[in-house]
């Protein structure tokens, strides 16, 4: 193993600063032990975490060996215990999945506490090959067949702290040789030979069988992953541009996208945006498969303005009057998503003054004598001619058959029901939508327009400034 190449790789590809702390996950096997030792030899500041899964009798002795290596190298070692079997049972996970989840939670928890620049793990080229083959057998697109990345941010474990895998270009035989050359005896995990685990069956049964057809099968799969990783980066760049163009809003539990922008995107980009929206809500979701992506594409492309689809894990996808929405179950309450009042209710809005509408929404009013140069642009803000409205203002919901005369229609009125449709207000939000009224006449529909009779003109001398805002923490 070329140590100079590894040092440059750590800096250039993994983007690690040798003087900043990197937390290394160390099981004690040849891969993680060699990664840790390479970083120490190369002058990188490290700390190590060993997660004791408690699945084998020798777990205690293995932890002690990792601690001993830390003493020898002068590196801090933290040992964390994980209840793998209990977590697997309580969360309906396989033992493999539970161990992985608890391991990464421990690593990133410690990294945050120590202020580490990244978490480093010892996945090798062999692990990359097994991962690609696993994804191929389960069914995957480019995102799965590219394998693991040498550096990842915004992953399922942490939104900012990177996960790095410096050994993806190094074969397991090389890590074993590195340890042997330095007189190190890595931990031998007997469970790695247990073919009841899917990955082990790939390693010990399927890959040797495929090697009978192509002795270079591992190298070929590794190269395929490298080629697809570069292609995937290009696709993701296109998806990112389309995401920024289509995104209306993304917040915890809710993503809203422009339907027309999605429909105009190429099919591959549509799929990428759909996966990104689901991934934004559920970073660790693994069973969002091809069939669900295609159902989501079908909903986007269907005729009509409304529709819905139940996705995995209780997520819901909605098509609503020009929007494609992805919603967590707890966010389906319309009061959390839109400004709402009890249907048929009415409250007084003094000027100045404010009224809470629930769900964190607050409607505020103020009388002003100076206004900005450019009015408008924010649909949740309005400016009215104070001399044309009757105070106090009233805030209520719509009435059957009610009409509204919006500014810009030359004094013509329209049914409020038609206005809702034209403004693409979701059907379930209309009955409770707040209307700001002067006496009994609608002066402003928040999120929409002001009325013709109270519009601001060149002769306006005093203004009413209205603003509807929301505190997400209260929603």
Automatic annotation (TrEMBL):
EC numbers on record: 6.3.4.19
One GO MF term: tRNA(Ile)-lysidine synthase activity
Transmembrane segments: none
InterPro entries, alphabetized: Lysidine-tRNA-synth_C, Rossmann-like_a/b/a_fold, TilS/TtcA_N, tRNA_Ile_lys_synt, tRNA_Ile_lys_synt_N
Entry keywords, A to Z: ATP-binding, Cytoplasm, Ligase, Nucleotide-binding, tRNA processing
Domain Lysidine-tRNA(Ile) synthetase C-terminal: 393-466
Record field: catalytic activity: cytidine(34) in tRNA(Ile2) + L-lysine + ATP = lysidine(34) in tRNA(Ile2) + AMP + diphosphate + H(+)
Compartments where located: Cytoplasm
GO cellular component: cytoplasm
Pfam families in UniProt: ATP_bind_3, TilS_C
ATP-binding as UniProt keyword: yes
Entry's Gene Ontology BP terms: tRNA modification
Similarity comment: Belongs to the tRNA(Ile)-lysidine synthase family.
Function of the molecule: Ligates lysine onto the cytidine present at position 34 of the AUA codon-specific tRNA(Ile) that contains the anticodon CAU, in an ATP-dependent manner. Cytidine is converted to lysidine, thus changing the amino acid specificity of the tRNA from methionine to isoleucine.
UniProt remark on domains: The N-terminal region contains the highly conserved SGGXDS motif, predicted to be a P-loop motif involved in ATP binding.
Protein name as it appears in the record: tRNA(Ile)-lysidine synthase
Organism (species): Levilinea saccharolytica
Organism placement in taxonomy: Bacteria, Bacillati, Chloroflexota, Anaerolineae, Anaerolineales
């Amino acid at each position: 193993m070329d140590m100079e190449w590894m040092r440059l790789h750590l800096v250039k590809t993994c983007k690690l600063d040798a003087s900043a702390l990197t937390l290394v996950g160390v099981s004690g096997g040849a891969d993680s032990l060699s990664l840790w030792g390479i970083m120490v030899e190369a002058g990188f500041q490290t700390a190590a975490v060993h997660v004791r899964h408690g699945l084998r009798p020798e777990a205690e002795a293995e932890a002690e060996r990792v601690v001993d290596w830390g003493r020898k190298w002068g590196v801090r070692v933290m040992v964390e215990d994980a209840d793998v079997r209990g977590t697997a049972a309580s969360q309906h996970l396989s033992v493999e999945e539970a161990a992985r989840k608890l391991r990464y939670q421990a690593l990133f928890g410690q990294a945050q506490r120590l202020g580490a620049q990244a978490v480093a793990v010892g996945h090798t080229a062999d692990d990359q090959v097994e991962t690609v083959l696993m994804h191929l057998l389960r069914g995957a697109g480019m995102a799965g067949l590219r394998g693991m990345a040498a550096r990842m941010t915004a992953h399922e474990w942490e939104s900012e702290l990177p996960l790095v895998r410096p050994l993806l270009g190094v074969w397991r035989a090389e890590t074993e040789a590195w340890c042997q050359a330095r007189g190190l005896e890595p931990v031998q995990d007997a469970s790695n030979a247990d073919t009841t685990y899917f990955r082990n069956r790939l390693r010990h049964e399927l890959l040797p069988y495929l090697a009978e057809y192509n002795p270079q099968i591992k190298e070929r799969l590794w190269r395929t992953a490298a080629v697809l990783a570069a292609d995937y980066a290009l696709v993701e760049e296109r998806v990112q541009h389309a995401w920024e163009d289509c995104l209306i809003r993304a917040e915890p539990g809710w993503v809203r996208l422009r339907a027309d922008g999605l429909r105009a995107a190429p099919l591959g980009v549509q799929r990428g945006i759909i996966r990104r929206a689901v991934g934004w809500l559920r970073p660790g979701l693994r069973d969002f498969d091809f069939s669900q992506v295609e159902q989501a594409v079908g909903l986007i492309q269907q005729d009509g303005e409304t529709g819905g689809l139940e996705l995995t894990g209780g997520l819901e996808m909605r098509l609503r009057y020009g929007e494609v929405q992805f919603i967590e179950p707890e966010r389906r309450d319309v009061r959390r998503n839109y400004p709402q009042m009890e249907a048929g209710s009415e409250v007084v809005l003094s000027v100045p003054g404010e009224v809470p509408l629930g769900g964190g929404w607050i409607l505020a009013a103020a009388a002003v004598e100076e206004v900005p140069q450019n009015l408008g642009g924010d649909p949740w803000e309005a400016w009215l001619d104070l001399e044309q409205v009757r105070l106090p203002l009233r805030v209520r919901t719509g009435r059957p058959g009610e009409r509204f005369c919006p500014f810009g229609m030359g004094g013509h009125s329209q049914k409020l029901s038609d206005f809702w449709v034209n403004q693409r207000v979701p059907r379930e939000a209309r009955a409770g939508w707040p209307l700001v009224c002067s006496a009994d006449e609608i002066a402003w529909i928040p999120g929409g327009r002001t009325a013709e009779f109270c519009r601001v003109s060149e002769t306006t001398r005093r203004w009413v400034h209205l603003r509807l805002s929301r505190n997400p923490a209260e929603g």
